[in-house]
Structure formats: structure tokens, C-alpha cells
From TrEMBL:
Basic and acidic residues bias spans: 358-374
Protein name: DNA primase/polymerase bifunctional N-terminal domain-containing protein
Cross-referenced InterPro entries: DNA_primase/pol_bifunc_N (IPR015330), P-loop_NTPase (IPR027417)
Domain DNA primase/polymerase bifunctional N-terminal, chain residue ranges per copy: 39-209
Transmembrane annotation, as ranges: none
Domain of life: Bacteria
Region named Disordered: 1-22, 351-376
């Protein structure tokens, strides 16, 4: 019959050079291991032409032309050794074809109808590529035979959704070769029976499979009928050419026509927005009555931007008329919006069923370019909604939950993770990129749906305390979560956890915790005394509990005592991150942005802490917010909220301000004897060995602390009383005696107070003042004069320090800041209120 196989086809001279026996022998002697070695094997031994791909996308210009394929073994190996590219087999350059089966069940049913065994036919090629959905048998094309690519698509009778049964791939198409990484599963493609040892091992396409391929159009109606498809309209083949593009054909799309016939203002006003001037509108639920929606006059098509926080249009992007229509009238459902817009414009609407003869993956009915086109954004949104769930947290932030690698993943919709998922899902479905504007519209539509109709769930990053229980996200690919409850801890899958955890790109995985360890082993990783170990353990336990406010931890010590290593070690124990040694943030905004990436922040080698940074760290400890003007607005704010523990280290005394000192645990590291100093490698190996046990011991202590918390009461609660109460409640599981922590905590705060006072000229003057008088009460302006006179400033004998108060108001502010450390060292300052002569204070020397 026509097309019957002749002699086994080698690579034509135009497709590559002959393969000699020495090359084959060398390949048989050593199987390829690295990606580069595989590429060398494919080009030198098998005579393939290949192309590099990112995911499944080939990116070289005209990659599907045979002359543009990579063929030289040495340069091809070098390329794949130095990049993370996948290897794409260019069929037109290799004389190959694959039978790509997406649904083995349908294939068995199809061939059984004709009395054939699909599994036996598939086994004609022992070399099959296994990927996400099934196996692709690889064949050589018979010499003199020209094949086209085809695809068999049916409508599933149960779901009504389009299902690809199989695809015959050849010509100007490419398939990923092992060990390329699948972009969705992140698993490598594999050869079922190992890679072919030589080109002669690859079978030539023949027999019934070749007959089917050559007579596809005639066989198609029979195949559809065998699979229960009553509508057997012909399906177009999917062969592609280098010149094929995605240019718009026929009429304008529904979205373009809608934007042509409507302005954003028209759609706003029919949804209750009130015009304010020529280019602004007021949100219907506005409590201020001020215009929060503004026209962007230079945009094409015209777009509006909203900065009403409660407005569903309040996103990071402007909205054209159709986008406003989609969000306000259809809850962000693009599919419904396109249908409604088509009806409003008097246009026929393509149904989504994608039955044979209806809408193709291009968005138009096959063979009919006169129907309105469904945009990429619409198709991408429907793909995401079929798999994911948009939702929000109690603060109104929008998220989405999507299937991951055998588990569920949660992403903030404004994050790179969500955008990567949408783009990757669309590419996997249609093998084309989703452009930036379309991607932004999909994210906006999902955000609108999440805010307007999504469920509200608790969310956290790394840790979360919820309804009396603490949860820890281990950051693993299997999304296992540690639940701490009822005096114990255990592992749960993310699907069974009431908290939906999100992850930043900087987050790294924790090991599986192990039982039986002791927190006393922390001494093997830190060169500090017993008091320092108690404070470090307490810091870790407080940070792990997710029950803020949190204390910060500051390491001090001379150069070379391992402050940076100690800080990194503690952060890695509970919140490993690629950003584990940050420099000091220059602005408060930078601090709160960093808090969105990690639970524990570690700032390395600080020479000093400015007054502004000190105030910001105080706010971060107890829970604070940074507000800035929203982009493209004049009177709206974007607020960053966070409560996080931080680790600080430096040679100098960093805690020069009393308010930060009260919120910080100060630990001094000891000089390391040269005979006991470990190499970085040895310390890292010891950390790796101890990490699972230390994490398990911390979780056990936390479980005990949460169980005892309600029965634990402090007679004289210190600053950060909730933190101190948790540590006392956990002491039965901690490596010290009950009461030791409160004593160490008090001693540390008293020592920190002394350090602060010794470095403060005003504090020294006040102590001298009270050492002579023991008690004083009066107006603050008189106190300032007395202190100036005492220090010789009235007579000009000396110059005041830079931070010496110049007026009574400044003195009052300094007294309020110095009151805590003064009281810890026996000096009390009390504000008595405003009286005749101004603000009055009482100062006295007391017994500590």
C-alpha cells in the first residue's frame, strides 16, 4: 500500500553527518548522566537535531526549521551543561515521529472497537518517553514518506469538557527528551526502557499505526463514532509551519468591540458610580463622598484607576470598559462577561463546549473565522477557575488555592507564584505564552472574585497561631504542616490544615522534626554562657509559637566571636531563608517589605541603630504598620502590616534607646579558644545532624507551654508579659529549673538599662541630681534650668551634648524614654500632670 516502509531511514545528508561505529561503541560503554551528556548522545549517536527550550517553549528563532536545529555534539553538550534548558527533539530535523497518548483508557477502548490491542501496538516501539500524562512511543519515519501532525479530541460524556485522546506529532513540532524537567510536575521525563543505544535500535513506523497516520481524515469519523461522539464534524490537523502566527482574523473580538462601543464611565454610571467632574467618579459605598475613581486620559483603550480600598476595581492596574463590566456586573467571570457582552452587542456567542466543529483552542470555531474570538484571558481564566479557588483573608487580601504536586498550594494573587501558575497552566494547555496584559487581566478578575464572593480563611507565612493551636509550615514540596495541640505535635497535610499558608520565593524547607532531642544540645552550636542559652532558647520558642508580640534578639561581642554565624544558625533552626544575613534597612518601608518575605528577620553587622530604625523595630516587635501613598493616587494609602521577631548583631552596643532595649533579649558571645574553633564545614555538618532533633524539642516545649498556658500566672509581669508567660508555662520541657528564665530575663534587662544610662549624658546628669537631693518635685522648665546649671551650661563652662534637650518639651520626651531604665537602677521619674507653671514631674531615688 502507499507509504509502506522501505529500508530503515537514516539521517539524510542535509540533516547530519554519518554515525561511525567508534562513536556507537563509546556510547555503549558509558550511559549518559548529565543533561549535556544526554544532548551529546542524542546528536552524535542518534543523529537527532535538537533545540533548547524553557519549560516546553522553544525560544530560538525559527527553531522548527531543520537548518536551525543544534547538531554539533560538542557545542550542543556545552550549551546544555551551562544552562537549565530542556532538550527539545525537532522532528523535522531528525526524521522522527511520536504517538503522544494523553488518555490510555480511551485508546484501549478505541482500538478494542476495531479488534486491536493498543498495548501491543504501543509496544512496537520499546523506546517510549514517559511524561505527565502517559507515554510517547518514538518512531523513525519511513524513507520517502511525508506525514502531517494530527490530534484526536472528544467531548467527555460525563463532564462535557474537551479531552485530548492522542496526538500524532511530527514535522515542525518538538517533544521534550529525557531527562528534561516537566514544567508542571517538576519531575524529569524518562525513557521507559532506557535511551536508544543507536539509531538502528529505533523502530520504523509501520503496519497499522502507519496506516492510521496516513489515512487519518478517512478514519476520524469512525474513531469518533467508536468513542460515542455523535457529532463527527471533521477536526483540523494541527501541523504548524514556521510562518504561522497568531494574527487576528475576521471580525474584532467581543472585548475589542465592547471597548469600541462603551467608555469606562458609561459602565461605571450604570452600576451606581456618581460622576464628579469630567474625569472622576465616586464609589457607591464611599463614606467620604470623595472621588476615588479617575480616568487615565492617555490610555488606549480608555482606562480608569480606583483607589477606594473597598472598591472591587481597586487593584494594581487600570481597567478598560470591558474590565469594569466584567468585575462589576459578572463578579470577575470573564466567560460570563464575554457571553453577556456579545448579546449586548447583538453578536453570536461561541459556546465553551468545544465539541467537534465548535470553538478550537484558538478561540474560534474550527474553520470559521467570522465568529467572535474568545480572548486568551478568557480561556486562561476558565482554566484557572476549573482547577483553583479564589479566596480572601480577614484583611481583604486576595489569594488562590491551586493543585500542586500531589497537594494544594496557596498563593497571594499579587505574588509571582500566582502569576507563574496562571502562565504555566495556560502554556501547558495551549502551548503558547500568555502575554502581560492578558495575565494582568486574569489576575485582576481572580482578585475581584476573591474579594467579592470568595470564602474567608486564616492565612499565615511559616507560622500561625489559630484558635489555641500553633501551626508550622515546613516549606517542603509535599506541603506538610506541623500542628501543635493538646500537649503534643503531629504532621498534617496542607489540605487538612485550617490555616492556608503562603510562601515567599526566599523561603527554604525545614527538615522533618524528630522526637528525642534536647534543647541543651543548642550549646554545641552557640558559644555563649548558660544565661545566653536560656535567652536564645526563649527567643526561638516565642518566634515558633506565632503568639506575638515578639522580643528581638541582639548578639554582641568582639570581632571574631561568631555573631553572624550564631544569628544565621538561630534563624535557620525555625525559618531558613535565602535572605538570612540582611543589611540594615535604609527606610521603614524596606523593613516592612522584608517582613512579607520571612517570619524571622536577621540583620547582620550593624554598626549602630538610628532613632528611626529603633522606632521601626519597636513597632515590628509589637505589631505595626507602614502606610504610603497608593500608586497612581493622591489621597489613598497602601498599608503594610507586620509583627515579626528579628535578630540583630554588631560589635558595638546596639541598644542605646530604652524602648528598643525593653523589647530585646541581649546575649553576649564568648571568645572562641583557638583550640576549640571549628571549621565552617564541621559546624555545618553538626548543625545538619542536630537540626531535626532541636526542631522536635522546640515543638515539644511549645506543646507543653500551650497546654499549661491557662494555668500559668506571673506575680510581677515584665515587659512583653505574654511572651514571658509562655516561656514559664513551657519550663517543664526546658533544660533549666522553673523560675530560672524570669531571673535571667530580669538580670539581662537591668544590665541593658545600665548600658543605656552609662551612654546617655542626660541620664548621668539625672542620677547625679538625685544622688544629691534624693527627692525633687516641680515644673519641668525649672528642672531643665537646674540641670543646665549643674552641668555648667548656664555659665557657658561647657557645651551641651548633641542630644541634650534644648527646651522643656524635649526634656519631657527624654524623661519618658529614660523612665524604664532609670527605674531598673533605682531612680523613679513620675509625670504629675499639668499645673500652674507647666508640666510637673516628681523625681526620687528609690531602693530597687
Amino acid at each position: 500500500m502507499a507509504g509502506s516502509p522501505g529500508r530503515r531511514a537514516g539521517v539524510p545528508e542535509s540533516r547530519g553527518r554519518p554515525v561511525n561505529a567508534d562513536t556507537i561503541t563509546a556510547a555503549l560503554r558509558a550511559a549518559p548522566r548529565t543533561l549535556g551528556e544526554h544532548a551529546y548522545h542524542y546528536t552524535s549517536v542518534l543523529g537527532f537535531g535538537v533545540t533548547p527550550t524553557q519549560g516546553k517553549r522553544a525560544y530560538l528563532p525559527n527553531w522548527n526549521s531543520p537548518e536551525n536545529a543544534l547538531r554539533d555534539p560538542q557545542s550542543t553538550q556545552a550549551h546544555f551543561e551551562r544552562t537549565n534548558d530542556n532538550i527539545g527533539l525537532v522532528h523535522a530535523a531528525s526524521g522522527t515521529a511520536t504517538f503522544d497518548v494523553d488518555n490510555e483508557e480511551y485508546m484501549r477502548k478505541l482500538f478494542a472497537e476495531f479488534g486491536r490491542d493498543w498495548d501491543k501496538l504501543k509496544a512496537q516501539s520499546p523506546y517510549r518517553i514517559r511524561g505527565q500524562k502517559g507515554e510517547k512511543p518514538l518512531f523513525l519515519i519511513p524513507e520517502g514518506v511525508t506525514l502531517r501532525s494530527h490530534k484526536l479530541v472528544i467531548t467527555c460524556p460525563k463532564t462535557g469538557k474537551k479531552v485530548t485522546v492522542c496526538e500524532l506529532r511530527t514535522g515542525q513540532m518538538q517533544d521534550l527528551l529525557p531527562p528534561s524537567i516537566h514544567p508542571i510536575t517538576k519531575e524529569p521525563y524518562v525513557w521507559v526502557n532506557g535511551p536508544p543505544r543507536s539509531r538502528d535500535d529505533i523502530p520504523v513506523l509501520s503496519g497499522e499505526l502507519l496506516d492510521l497516520w496516513l489515512n487519518w481524515e478517512a478514519a476520524l469519523p469512525l474513531m469518533l463514532a467508536a468513542l460515542g461522539q455523535t457529532d463527527v464534524a471533521p477536526q483540523a490537523h494541527v501541523s504548524r509551519t514556521p510562518t504561522e502566527s497568531h494574527e487576528e482574523l475576521g471580525n474584532e473580538s467581543v472585548i475589542e468591540l465592547f471597548n469600541t462601543h462603551h467608555t469606562p464611565g458609561e459602565v461605571l454610571e450604570r452600576n451606581g458610580y456618581t460622576r464628579s467632574g469630567n474625569h472622576s467618579w465616586v464609589f457607591p459605598d464611599s463614606t467620604t463622598g470623595s472621588a476615588g475613581v479617575h480616568l487615565l486620559p492617555d490610555s488606549r483603550p480608555l482606562r480608569v484607576y480606583s483607589h477606594h480600598q473597598a472598591d472591587p476595581l481597586c487593584t494594581e492596574h487600570g481597567h478598560d470598559a470591558f474590565s469594569v463590566f466584567t468585575i462589576l456586573e459578572h463578579g470577575g467571570n470573564l466567560h460570563q462577561a464575554v457571553k453577556a457582552a456579545a448579546q449586548e452587542l447583538g453578536l453570536p456567542f461561541m459556546k465553551k463546549s468545544n465539541k467537534p466543529g465548535e470553538a478550537s483552542h484558538e478561540g474560534r470555531p474550527a474553520g470559521n473565522h467570522s465568529e467572535p474570538r474568545i480572548s486568551k484571558g478568557t480561556r486562561a481564566l476558565q482554566l484557572v477557575l476549573d482547577k483553583g479557588e479564589p479566596w480572601r483573608d480577614d484583611a481583604g487580601q486576595a489569594y488562590i488555592t491551586v493543585p500542586g504536586k500531589g497537594c494544594l498550594e496557596h498563593h497571594r494573587l499579587s505574588s509571582r507564584g500566582a502569576k507563574d501558575y496562571v502562565g504555566d497552566l495556560f502554556f501547558d494547555s495551549e502551548e503558547r505564552m500568555l502575554g502581560g496584559p492578558a495575565l494582568s487581566e486574569v489576575i485582576d478578575a481572580l482578585s475581584a472574585r476573591a474579594r467579592r464572593s470568595g470564602q474567608v480563611y486564616p492565612t499565615g507565612q511559616r507560622v500561625k497561631h489559630w484558635q489555641g493551636k500553633s501551626y508550622l509550615d515546613l516549606g517542603r514540596e509535599d506541603w506538610l504542616i506541623v500542628a501543635v495541640e493538646d500537649g503534643d505535635w503531629h504532621l498534617v497535610p496542607a489540605a487538612d490544615c485550617p490555616v492556608r499558608f503562603t510562601r515567599s520565593p526566599q523561603m527554604k524547607a525545614l527538615p522533618l522534626p524528630e522526637r528525642g532531642g534536647s534543647l541543651g544540645q543548642l550549646s554545641e552550636l552557640l558559644n555563649t554562657d548558660r544565661k545566653g542559652l536560656i535567652l536564645c532558647t526563649a527567643f526561638l520558642l516565642g518566634a515558633l509559637s506565632a503568639r506575638g508580640p515578639y522580643p528581638h534578639l541582639a548578639f554582641k561581642g568582639e570581632q571574631g566571636v561568631g555573631k553572624s554565624t550564631a544569628a544565621s544558625t538561630l534563624q535557620r533552626l525555625i525559618d531558613p531563608s535565602t535572605a538570612n544575613r540582611r543589611r540594615a534597612p535604609r527606610k521603614e518601608q524596606d523593613l516592612f517589605i522584608a517582613a512579607r518575605s520571612s517570619h524571622v528577620l536577621s540583620f547582620d553587622n550593624l554598626s549602630s541603630i538610628s532613632a528611626d530604625l529603633s522606632d521601626s523595630l519597636c513597632a515590628l516587635s509589637t505589631g505595626g504598620a507602614f502606610a504610603t501613598r497608593t500608586l497612581h493616587t493622591n489621597d489613598e494609602e497602601t498599608v503594610l502590616q507586620a509583627m515579626r521577631p528579628a535578630i540583630l548583631n554588631g560589635i558595638a552596643d546596639l541598644l542605646t534607646r530604652a524602648d528598643l532595649a525593653e523589647r530585646t533579649l541581649l546575649v553576649e558571645l564568648q571568645r572562641i579558644d583557638a583550640s576549640q574553633r571549628l571549621t565552617e564545614q564541621a559546624l555545618e555538618e553538626r548543625f545538619t545532624d542536630l537540626h531535626p532533633q532541636l526542631l522536635g524539642a522546640l515543638l515539644t516545649a511549645l506543646a507543653v507551654g500551650l497546654q499549661n498556658l491557662e494555668q500559668t500566672h506571673l506575680e510581677r509581669p515584665p515587659r512583653l508579659a505574654d511572651f514571658a508567660r509562655l516561656i514559664v508555662a513551657a519550663e517543664p520541657a526546658l533544660p533549666w529549673e522553673p523560675g530560672d528564665f524570669l531571673q535571667v530575663y530580669a538580670d539581662m534587662q537591668e544590665e541593658a538599662a545600665r548600658v543605656i544610662l552609662e551612654g546617655d549624658d542626660l541620664a548621668q546628669a539625672l542620677r547625679t541630681f538625685l544622688d544629691e537631693r534624693r527627692h525633687w518635685e516641680g515644673p519641668i522648665n525649672l528642672l531643665l534650668n537646674l540641670l543646665n546649671e549643674q552641668e555648667g551650661l548656664m555659665a557657658g563652662y561647657s557645651r551641651p551634648a548633641v542630644d541634650w534637650p534644648r527646651n522643656p518639651r524635649a526634656l519631657g520626651e527624654r524623661l519618658r524614654r529614660l523612665a524604664p531604665p532609670l527605674s531598673k537602677t533605682g531612680y523613679a521619674t513620675t509625670y504629675m500632670g499639668r499645673r500652674k507653671g507647666g508640666m510637673h514631674y516628681r523625681l526620687q531615688k528609690v531602693q530597687v
